[in-house]
Amino acid sequence: MSNDTNKSQVREAFGPDTIEQFMRDQVREKLGEIVEEEVMLAMGAGRYQRVGEERRGSLHGTRTRTLTTSLGPTAFDMPRARLRTEDRGRREWSSRIVPRYQRRTQRIDEAILGVSLSGSNRRRIRGALAPLLKGGPLSKDAVSRLVGRLSEDFNTWRARDLSSDEIRYLYLDGWYPKVRIGKKRERVPVLVVLGVGADAQRVLLDMCIAGEESCASWSEIIDRLEKRQMSAPVLPVIDGNSGLEAALRKQWPAIEVQRCTAHKLRNLQSKARARMREELAEDYRRMIYAENCQAVEQQRQRFVKKWKLRSPAVIESFEEAGDALFTFLKFPRSQWKALRTTNALERVNEEFRRRTKTQSSLRECRCRAVAVVRTFT
Questions:
Q1: Domain coordinates of the chain in residue numbers?
Q2: N or C: fewer beta carbons within 10 Å in the chain?
Q3: Of 201, 230, 175, 222, whose CA–CA distance to 338 is shortest?
Q4: Residue 208 CB neighbour total at 10 angstroms
Q5: Tens digit of pLDDT for each residue in 229-256?
């Protein structure tokens, strides 16, 4: 009987959480020792030590604080003290190790940021970080405040110097995610600029949520790039937005522009009847993907001749782009694939869309932009 009792006591004393419980007790003790040593240094004297004028303050009790560490929430006694100021006044002592209002360690905050910026909401964050939080408090506002601190990092990134990047090509485009403004869900433009340097490396240069995709909005971004010492690009690749093209030519009047061939194909298909769209796409691709400049020109003439009779609206839209649709022919053939479309931006837009799927407020979209920047820099 006594053997069974002993085994039962052992099972109660040592369970699956024994190691972590022991570590939590150690953390509690060490935290208490560290903050007590800190306050003694601030006062210039130990507990009950009499050193005369060298003492700069005195203790007046403790306050229970709870700090969530990687082992879960830990409660400890935070000493309270009043320190003497230079004008013989008094001020309340504040710990630098565990600052006032801090509820989590930096490691926990980094884990929360990582999961949040990957596109998860608060419920999923709590589930993913359950082994770390272990029941520790994590409110929706706490997550929002934590993510909101990244705005300063984002502003610093948008103001960084670009003179050393030696940008040669620019990809500019805007896309329209749905965000919550007040009580309504509306589409707002996100303007994105991607650059390619002399070393052929892609660099995300700017990202901005604008009121509208207009010449004024794009001019503001281009002016900012100029002020950040970005050199004039050899070729910008755009989707055909008239405001964007006007802003580019305003900044660099002599610059040549490449219109995105993928965007133009979608425009042409919208002008044709449904039964003609597949044939139209085949003729268009045969022209755009021809092997050399001469073949492209031959297919261009055939395309115009054929579709001018079959669908005048298609040709009207095609001729609107003019030679800007074929600017890529002036560059080495090895670069044609990269210069024909703005597809280089699709990866950026896809990442932004994925991360804003669960949080659709305008403020959260700005914060999620930080995560996209971290991914592509």
A1: 17-92, 109-149
A2: N
A3: 201
A4: 18
A5: 998 999 999 998 889 999 999 999 999 9
What does the block give as tokens for 156?
């610093």
Q: What is the 3-state secondary structure (H, E, C) of the chain?
A: CHHHHHHHHHHHHCCCCHHHHHHHHHHHHHHHHHHHHHHHHHHCCCCCCCCHHHCCEEEEEEEEEEEEECCEEEEEEEEEEEEECCCCCEEECCCCCCCCCCCECHHHHHHHHHHHHCCCCHHHHHHHCHHHHCCCCCCHHHHHHHHHCCHHHHHHHHCCCCCCCCEEEEEEEEECCEEEECCEEEECCEEEEEEEECCCCEEEEEEEECCCCCHHHHHHHHHHHHHCCCCCCCEEEECCCHHHHHHHHHHCCCCCCEECHHHHHHHHHHHCCHHHHHHHHHHHHHHHCCCCHHHHHHHHHHHHHHHHHHCHHHHHHHHHHHHHHHHHHHCCHHHHHHHCCCHHHHHHHHHHHHHCCCCCEHHHHHHHHHHHHHHCC
What does the alpha-carbon distance between residue 1 and residue 8 come to, in Å, rounded to a whole number?
11
Contact 179, 361 (CB under 8 A): yes
pTM equals 0.67
- Residue 218's alpha-carbon distances to 169, 189, 206, 231, 352, in angstroms, are 17, 11, 11, 17, 19
The number of residues making up the chain comes to 377
Per the CB < 8 A criterion, the answer to whether 248 and 238 are in contact is: yes
- Token pair, residue 109, equals 């905050």
